[in-house]
Structure formats: structure tokens, C-alpha cells
Amino acid sequence: MKKTNVIEVENLTKMFGDFTAVNAITFEVKKGEIFGFLGANGAGKTTAMKMLIGISKPTSGKAKVAGFDVFTHAEDIKKNIGYMSQKFALYDDLTVKENITFFGGIYGLSRPKIKEKTIALLEELGLQEVANQLVGSLPLGWKQKISFSVSLLHEPQIVFLDEPTGGVDPITRRQFWEMIYKSANQGTTIFVTTHYMDEAEYCDRVSIMVEGKIEALDTPKKLKDQFKVDSMNEVFLKLARNIE
């Protein structure tokens, strides 16, 4: 059975004055897919993501996210996606429970639904004992897991994750990816940026941006075959050298 596209992008471009930050990128993402969006710092990844999540207007091109046009229905896009930024959306001066309640309210969930979701989330993450602790007192890895779970509270079609595992230990990274797999298996589409090339191997498909353009896009296996290398890190290095 053919999966439907939940993100469709055609010649999407963003310019700042004379500088082209994102240069006519085209791709699509299917429902339930884990799509890796890779590139070095300054390659245009974050700028592209901001256009897709409805907080930055493109200069030209076309894009639909969750069926909504990025030019005309940015607010509808925001209601149908989850977003976890590199710097976390959680409030350090609120408890774990208060954060869940606060974001549940922002996402428009009813009080009974928030209560139900809070109990389920705390149980799933094994955080019942720290439910009333300030988020600021928790280890980084725990914050990231809570932040990801909070981005899924309203059961969005798509979750955008910007460098979600930066700065955590390998065990926590692995646990985080288990959470990503679980969500994808339940039909949530995951759009993830990462600079860890080993994490690219966990994605269904990967796009690699270099200087504002998508220079490669395929499954990790096909990209490794295409570039005749054994790892995504080597794909990235070879691609960067080819462009220079």
C-alpha cells in the first residue's frame, strides 16, 4: 500500500538580501517515515525547517506540511505538528508535571485529557518519583525525553526534532532513538536534523544539504552504495569534497 506524503516541497527558497540561505530545495516525506535532514552548520537546515514549521515565510517555491500551504496556512501547520528545539521548550522553573499541564493547555487539550496524558507519560518514562521536581534540576537526557514526549502530547501528524540528542551520552541517545522508532511505528512522521552521522543510519531516508542545496537524498544504504563507502560519515565527507 502506497504511503501518502505529509510534507511536499518544491523549489523552496529563502533569501536574506542577496544571500541565498536555502536554494530551490525539492523533496517529499511520507507518513510514518523517519526523515533525516543533514548538513554542516550553516548549510541551511535550520532555515529550511523554520519555513516548514510556519515561523519563517519562504521567498519563493512551494511547500505543504500536513496538507497545509506554508504561505497561507502557517497557523494550521503549527496546530498539526510537534516541535522540539535544540534548546528545549521546557521551563526549568516549573515541575515536570507543571510543564506537561502547561503545554497540554497550549496544545488545546481538555483538563481531563491533560490529566490522562500526564499519568500515561510519567508512567511510560518512569518519572513518577520526580513528577514534582523542577525540570531545571534534572539531567539533560531526562529533559530531552520529557521534551520529546511533550511535543507528542496533542498527537501531531509530524514531529520536527532539531538536533535532539546533542550533548547526551551514547546510552541516552540510543534510548531516545527507541522513542523515535516507537512513535514512527504508531504512524507519526519524524523529521530530524542531526550532525551525528551514525544517527543518519537510523533514518528511513536522508537528505544532505551543502551550502543551501540538497546534494544527496536516498536511503542510507543506497547512498553508501552510490558513493562506494561503508558509513554515512564517509558519504558526507566525500560529498563535501566533491562540492569544493
From TrEMBL:
It is found in: Membrane. It is a multi-pass membrane protein. GO terms for cellular component: membrane. Keywords: ATP-binding, Membrane, Nucleotide-binding, Transmembrane, Transmembrane helix, Transport. The keyword Membrane applies. Residues 7-236 form the ABC transporter domain. GO terms for molecular function: ATP binding; ATP hydrolysis activity. The keyword Transport applies. This is ABC transporter related protein. Signal peptide: none annotated. Coiled coil: none annotated.
